[in-house]
Amino acid sequence: MIYYRLFDIEPGVTAIIGSGGKTSLLRRLAEEVPGTAILCTTAHIRPFSEYPVLESPDPDAVRQALTAHRIICVGTPCENGKLTAPALPMEALAELADYVLAEADGSRQLPLKAHAAHEPVIPASSRRIVCVAGASGFGKPIRTAVHRPERFCALTGARETDTATPELAARVFLAEHLCGTVFLNQLDTPDSTAAGWRFAAPLTAAGIQVWGGCLHTGRIFPLF
């Protein structure tokens, strides 16, 4: 299935937020979109080593790189070998490439998260926002499965020792209501798929479009 079409990704800036597969989704979208693509962040990411990485480039350097390579990664070097936001504004990047795909928050590689007040950092020029969650967090203690568990508990009334259920995760999404498109990743077993329907039910009732699937296998299907 073609993810970028199902998510209605248009030319311009797209922000990917959440947890449980953002980087993998960014990589897949970059491979799928029919044009040049810049991968970047408004937070912190590991460089996409399979593509040319431009550190603090000027517009001419970006143009030259996109002439030679359809997909590039752009950012500003920071600690631990990571990249942070590019020096060039997102609007400028969108004039240089057909698609700008930006990871707009962090999750410390945990499958679920709640957002602090200062995040996500969504570019003002974003034409689409997709929020990702990982079903592998369901059934595990909140304190071990969730990035910012204290915020998750504040939004749900749960305790950090409680189990992270699909219903609690959905409650966080409804409370934050950061976008109208959600992708629940890591649905790779019948049990996880059943949990996915439990997660999606209250969101779709609120008018949020929920897709389920597994980026590892390429499977994707509507949960609405």
Helix content: 25-40%
Number of strands: 12
- Alpha carbon gap, first and last residue: 17 Å
Poorly predicted regions: none
Radius of gyration over all CA atoms, rounded? 17 Å
Element-level helix/strand string: HEHEEHEEHEEEHEHHEHEE
Protein structure class: alpha/beta
Overall outline: globular
Strand content: 25-35%
Largest sheet: 10 strands, mixed
The number of helical runs is 8
- Would you tell me the overall average pLDDT? 97
Explained architecture:
The protein is an alpha/beta fold and 224 residues long. The chain is built from 8 helices and 12 strands. The chain has helices spanning 3-6, 22-32, 59-68, 90-96, 142-145, 149-156, 166-176, 190-205, and strands spanning 12-18, 37-41, 53-55, 71-77, 83-84, 99-103, 112-113, 126-134, 146-147, 181-185, 209-214, 219-222. The strands form 2 sheets. Strands 1, 2, 3, 4, 5, 6, 8, 10, 11 and 12 form a 10-stranded mixed beta sheet that branches. Strand 3 (53-55), helix 3 (59-68) and strand 4 (71-77) form a beta-alpha-beta unit. Helix 7 runs parallel beside helix 8. It is globular. The chain starts with a helix and ends with a strand. The model has no long low-confidence stretch (mean pLDDT 97).
